[in-house]
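Example for tutorial group B:
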């Protein structure tokens, strides 16, 4: 079985060591590089071509936000998972705009980190449960302050496609959406592909941004 290649970037050696031990403990993954600053993370991403780059936000030389932006610009196929102490919604807003595929806080359980890696490799965005509400609230506020970014595109979506898009914005996987809407996973994936085509969006993070900017995700009760 081909292993998922992981790049770890954090300025604290103890964090890198812990992640390395966790990742190497699974047969699914392999660590192909480690960086202690943002510049090294960008350089290693180009050199090692990992499947997933796990980045902290607060790093010397180049922040995780800037490193994410450069990695996604140069290698859009690389998935970026942010692992940080910051729970401020403004950081979440910035890192999603930079192109990150997932955002977790460092108090996450070990199994949650592995689950996050699997999710983003499978094109599913992943956010720690504790900050999902912050993400939705932040983007709803932003959408109320801004003009519709793609006002003429939304009418192209069918009612079912809008339902799927709203659930994507809430962080549900294709399997979870299928169960909730009584559809097959294949049908959900077809709706997702149609959404990307109609909206001219090319990744899951883009779909989440669009849905939230349009106010399509209601804040959970």
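The residue assignment follows.
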């Amino acid at each position: 079985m081909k292993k998922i290649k992981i790049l770890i970037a954090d300025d604290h050696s103890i964090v890198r060591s812990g992640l390395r031990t966790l990742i190497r403990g699974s047969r699914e993954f392999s660590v192909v590089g480690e960086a202690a600053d943002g510049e090294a993370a960008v350089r290693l991403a180009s050199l090692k071509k990992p499947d997933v780059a796990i980045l902290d936000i607060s790093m010397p030389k180049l922040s995780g936000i800037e490193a994410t932006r450069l990695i996604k610009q140069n290698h859009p196929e690389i998935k970026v998972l942010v692992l940080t102490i910051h729970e401020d919604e403004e950081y979440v807003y910035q890192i999603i705009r930079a192109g990150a595929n997932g955002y977790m806080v460092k108090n996450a359980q070990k199994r949650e980190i592995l689950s996050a890696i699997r999710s983003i490799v499978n094109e599913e965005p992943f956010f720690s449960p504790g900050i999902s509400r912050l993400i939705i609230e932040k983007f709803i506020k932003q959408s109320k302050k801004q003009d519709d970014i793609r006002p003429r595109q939304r009418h192209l979506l069918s009612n079912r496609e809008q339902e799927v898009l709203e659930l994507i914005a809430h962080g549900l996987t294709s399997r979870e959406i299928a169960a909730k809407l009584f559809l097959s996973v294949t049908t959900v994936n077809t709706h997702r592909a149609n959404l990307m085509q109609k909206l001219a969006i090319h990744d899951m993070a883009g779909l989440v941004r669009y849905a939230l900017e349009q106010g399509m995700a209601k804040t959970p009760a």
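Residues 129-145 form the longest helix (17 residues). Compare this with the pattern of hydrophobic and polar residues in the output above.
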